[in-house]
Design brief:
The complex is a heterodimer.
Chain A: E1 9-13, E2 18-23, E3 31-38, E4 45-50, E5 55-56, E6 61-64, E7 70-75, E8 84-92, E9 105-110
Parallel strand pairs in A: 1-9
Antiparallel strand pairs in A: 2-7, 3-4, 3-8, 5-6, 6-7, 8-9
Chain B: E1 4-7, E2 10-13, E3 19-25, E4 32-38, E5 45-51, E6 57-58, E7 67-73, E8 76-81, E9 90-98, E10 104-107, E11 111-115
Parallel strand pairs in B: 2-11
Antiparallel strand pairs in B: 1-3, 3-8, 4-5, 4-9, 5-6, 7-8, 9-10, 9-11
Classes of the chains: A mainly beta, B mainly beta.
Amino acid sequence: DAKTTQPTSMDCAEGRAANLPCNHSTISGNEYVYWYRQIHSQGPQYIIHGLKNNETNEMASLIITEDRKSSTLILPHATLRDTAVYYCIVRVATSGSRLTFGEGTQLTVNP
Amino acid sequence: GAVVSQHPSWVICKSGTSVKIECRSLDFQATTMFWYRQFPKQSLMLMATSNEGSKATYEQGVEKDKFLINHASLTLSTLTVTSAHPEDSSFYICSASWTGSGNTIYFGEGSWLTVV
């Protein structure tokens, strides 16, 4: 699996957009970019994933650069409940393909 | 999204005893389930991958005789920590791959194990 690099921590004001970057310069052509978050003492929550096109769902938007070497997760209107560790993971989308977690980004949303 | 449930949410056991944690996919069939362990202030560490009807594949450094994994049906996998010791105290999390969503992996709520 390709390795990802994320900032250790970020802060965001409540109500503002939170933009979380991720570098995955060694991503392979068949690997997707997945984003999960983990709120303290809970299991990780799936947010969104994409291959090369930008994606949007009710939780967030995922912007993937044209060369696919980096991506940005956007939470359009951050709330205090969005405070969590956010993980960017690249993975082949087959049933047996694992998710390997790095250290992620601790996002703190401030009032 | 798909729902994965773990039971129990937390358990305390005596050193030397065994404890079982169940992982269920509630609204889908999961051919593959994964078990993770997470120590405080650390990231999740994959322990093993289990496929329905076959033996689990363990990650390097994980003792298969200590962490018994059974995946007897498409909706249930169990992790049994045998002869538990205080150093096995951790947050154990299962996850399951759902083919209905392009093999996206969904996680359970996690199970806190404390060995005293």
